Amino acid sequence: MTDTSEPSPRVLVCDDSPTMRALIRSMLGPDYEVLLVETGEEALERAPGFAPDVIVSDLLLPGISGSELCRRIRKTAGLAEVPFILVTTLADATSRALGLEAGADDYLYKPLRERELRARVVSLLRLHRALVGLESRQHELETTNAALREAQAALVRAGKLASVGTLAAGLAHEINNPLSYIKAGARSLSVTLGEVERLATPPGGHAPAELTALLSDAREVAAEMLEGSQRLERIAGDLRVIASPDAPNDESVDPAEAVESAFLLVRSRFPALPRLDIQVEPGPPIQSVGRLLTQGLLPVVENAVQVSGPGGVVQVRIRQLNVGVEISIQDSGPGIPADVLPRIFDPFFTTRPQGQGMGLGLSVAYGIVHGLGGDIQVESRPGQGACFRVRMPRRNTARVGLP
Fold first, then answer.
1. Closest-CA residue to 376 (of 285, 306, 301)
2. Mean pLDDT value across residues 154-181
3. Residue 164: which of 99, 238, 234 has the closest Cα?
4. Burial class (CB in 10 A: 0-12, 13-18, 19+), 320
5. pTM of the model
6. What is the pLDDT of residue 403?
7. Distance between the two ends of the chain, CA-based, in angstroms?
8. How many Cα atoms sit within 13 Å of 136 on the Cβ side?
């Protein structure tokens, strides 16, 4: 007897003899839901809708044989693993081998015995359910392992950011003092060079050519010093963000405005931009910190603009979630190599040539987004660009602070 709390097992019976079909139905009794068909063709047509747990078929059928029916069932999606029993009056080894080679799980000889038929069906059902259970548990285990790997990677990144935060606080402080001297010196040098040129130029005349050339070179050096100091100032700003322990109070923030502000800042850094495609799903604002969210999106937007190039496209999608919003930024660049993807948020990791990046941008983005209670992930396939997904809560009730 099967458990009445569960649906009755479904058995598809295929036999051209009405007497045999009725006999098998009576042998299985009320514990099973039985579908009776006469031909293999009818069995193939009705099996997907019936979704049998076991198939019992005569070997010798009009049209396709029981062996051929079994072979086709094994190639049908959703039915390939269904236990299959062949029934025949042929007791020779060749017929049995042909049936088993076609994929049959068991073989019964006529005349059928009720006890044996029921025992074979119950045994195959038990085995099939055990296999399905193993597959389900294997899938759950794979899902759990994947989640554990992601959690471990997140913990490693958080640990790195925490360590870098301590270092960043000291570096930002130490950089600021000499940086202020360099900036002031570069500006003062430019003013001084202009005064030197004025004093060296006779009234109504021109400064000596050699002096003019030297002054031009000195002005270039002063401009490079000023540009370098501004770059150091940006790096120090990134370091201060990483080292900051707390975020300001929440406010109402429109995610679309934060994205537009990030693009506005990027626009001033590139002479030509890719085409921007923004689609916003209407929804209420979130409770966050607007300027920090913009600063967290800025490195992602800047990367997307840079890798897409003037002829590319940057797609931004803002989607409403049950508990927040998702901001996805898809570029049309070459994609991120698989060996680089796990390290994309690591501090000081960069694939750019030396001197073109410190590798702090995406780690700053990661720190800010997580500090605001959100999450940031990246997906990429070679040749298909990269897609960064930033998810922010509607209301941050458990802010962890910036790392």
1. 301
2. 61
3. 238
4. middle
5. 0.46
6. 37
7. 61
8. 6
Question: Looking at this protein, which amino acid is placed at residue 211?
Answer: L
Please say if the pLDDT value at position 3 is more than 70: no
pLDDT value, residue 319: 94
Answer yes or no: are the C-beta atoms of 274 and 311 closer than 8 Å.
Answer: yes
The CB-based long-range contact list for 309-316 (8 Å cut-off, 24+ gap) reads 309/274, 309/333, 310/272, 310/273, 310/274, 311/274, 312/274, 312/275, 313/274, 313/275, 313/276, 313/277, 314/274, 314/275, 314/276, 314/277, 315/277, 315/278, 315/279, 316/259, 316/276, 316/277, 316/278, 316/279
Among 58, 62, 43, 37, which residue's Cα sits nearest to residue 110? 58
Q: Does residue 317 surpass a pLDDT of 90?
A: yes
CA dist., res. 49 & res. 113, Å (int): 29
| Alpha carbon of residue 291 to chain centroid | 27
Q: Is 364 left (phi over 0), alpha (psi -120 to 50) or beta?
A: alpha
The pLDDT of 375-396, averaged and rounded, is 89
Residues 6+ apart with CB under 8 A from 216: none
Q: Which residues lie closer than 8 Å to 359 by C-beta, 6 or more apart?
A: 346, 347, 348, 349, 350
Return d(Cα 39, Cα 54) in angstroms, integer: 17
Give dist(CA 222, CA 1) in Å, integer: 93
Q: What are the φ/ψ torsions at residue 103 (nearest 5 degrees)? A: 115, 10
Answer yes or no: are the C-beta atoms of 314 and 308 closer than 8 Å: yes
> What's phi and psi for 171, nearest 5 deg?
-65, -45
User: CA Rg, the chain, in Å?
Assistant: 36
What are φ and ψ of residue 64, in 5° steps? Answer: -75, 145
Least confident among 3-7, 71-75, 109-113, 332-336? 3-7
User: What are the structure tokens assigned to 114, written together?
Assistant: 């009720």
Q: Is 58 helix (H, G, I), strand (E, B) or coil?
A: strand
Q: pLDDT tens, 193-234?
A: 777 777 777 777 777 777 778 878 888 887 877 777 776 776
Which amino acid is present at 385? G
| Structure tokens belonging to residue 158 | 């958080």
Cis peptide before 111, with omega less than 30 degrees from 0?
yes
